[in-house]
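Methods — Computational structure assignment.
A single polypeptide chain was analysed. Its primary sequence is given first, followed by the predicted tertiary structure written as structure tokens.
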Amino acid sequence: MTVQKFQVMQMGSQQDGEPTMHYQTTQSGVSSHKIVDGKQTSTTSGVTSVKTTSKEAGVMIGGVSIHPDEAEAFLKEIEDDQHKEEADQQKAEEEQTEMESKGFDEHIVLTLEDLDQGSVANAVNQFTNGELTDENIAKAVSSLGFGDQESALEVGGNILSSLSDSFADIAEQEGFESTTGWDAMLQWNKVEAGKALHDWINTRGQDDTRLREAMREAWNAYGKASNAQRVEVMKEDGYEVRKTQGGGIAIKGNEFDDWTTWREVRESFKKI
């Protein structure tokens, strides 16, 4: 079936009587039109369209055709699977962290237990404030009863070295080098850094949750565009650096072919 429409587009002068009318015609071809079981199909000017209210029509979800009566249950199943996958991933990360939190060496634990705990706490404060000199290290272990400062310093140095190695392992797992991680924590919040270190040592390395959280907060603060020193160091190391909308930084260059946010940089550096 063809439908034609006529519309007056222009009229001539009426001076000589009846005006001359100019028509324009439009034509649309409806080659077929049918309704079967609630499905309406029509072809107009070569274009076919289909509408349906039939419950038998499939609902496409993720490229899969689902019966309408089953669509809601199917979507719920997908959501449940996603939640389960996220929960499993979180559990796996927690278990991985727990496995790596083995605590300090038994020898160091025994030595710390024998030390005066007030001296240990004072040594941690001195370390946080950059005041842990050789003399203060020897004083921290003086409760063990050493006859000379040299022996006390050797034992204190061994404890400090072991703690530093354990700290370095955690720092690498969180994306930091040991020294950089500690400097970032102090720059972020010296008080919280000290508390995190206290908690970690007081539990003999068994609970490093607060220490890890402090490192993560320090990492985010370390990568702020306002941290001019960090930005300058990154540029000197051959990176392009630009400010993100949220006030952080993104870098490009060396191992990063594309612009990479500071949070994504941490993920690539983590040893976990």
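Note: The radius of gyration is 37 Å.
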